[in-house]
Amino acid sequence: MASFVLRYHPLNLHLRHTFTISRWSRDIAANVLVELEADGIIGYGEASPNQRYNESQESCMQWLSSFNTADIKNPFDVEALLRVMDATGPGNYSAKVALEMALYDWIGKKLEIPLYELWNAPSNTGPQTCFTVGIDKTENLPDRVREAEPYPILKIKLGTDRDREIITTIRSVTDKPLWIDANEGWKDLETAKSHIRFLADQNVQMIEQPMPAGMKSELAALKSYSPIVTMADESFTGRESIDELAACFHGINLKLMKTGSLRRAMQLIHRGRKAGLHIMIGCMIESSLANSAAALISLWCDYADLDGHLLIRDDPYKGLAFNEQNHVYMPDMPGLGVTLR
Ligand SMILES: [Mg+2]
What we know:
Number of strands: 16
Shape: globular
Strand content: 15-25%
Oligomer: single chain
Bound molecules: magnesium ion
CATH topology of the largest domain: TIM Barrel
CATH class of the largest domain: Alpha Beta
């Protein structure tokens, strides 16, 4: 069997504009590139460690340094890799998914088949994708909306003390459908209800994480109140009870960096479907590498927010692409189909 060499490097991605959400603001995404090589074939993976889940570039590389590639006994047995990674304990999910991603990319390349074909995806084309407008000064918002001209759906970050001003400003320059992400920014039920009443007349199709993840009973009350679909993001890492989530939200936003595995993301889609949940796939600030893995999963999802690579100005890779209606599609190439730009 193949014996693998594992390499990893910092992958610092620079944002086009300082990106601000309700919790933080930043100019650089400190990601990690993973390479898994055997038989002259390199599989690539990417981690985007998130401070909300106690991860950093350093902690991610430290976890990778402790991984022993001799534990990959049969590279085609991905469940075995997941068991080895589970045995290292909880956490480090971005590092774990980067390693699994690299192994899947390697498997596809070794078999000379695109992963969407290997996995029997319904097609190589997924849902329409939104483009995110971060929190910005009100006078900058019209420019941000103009820059998003090619994208049919805008995702607007809220959770500020001037949310209505933001929406009114955006509505003065576009009538595109909007998705909202409050990133836990509405701190009580009455505030959330009042924002939703306002947004209900603004052609808003969904709201991500209106209130803090800990406010379960309020989120459940909001679900039955809201005429707009609410989606769990910070409330959903992939390890919670699906039934409890279904009581609090209409849908779930899957992110590979949270679930820690593509394979488990697929299991979560099936469990979410059984509970009647809408399924969304999202991303962190990532290059086209990690986002192509998310695009693969999007082929089974209802909504896609896969613009992480469009928000950076030095994406080293080429992979997922968008058609004229901005539906995401996978390139017809072995593995993830990602190449250097
Ligand atoms: Mg979100």
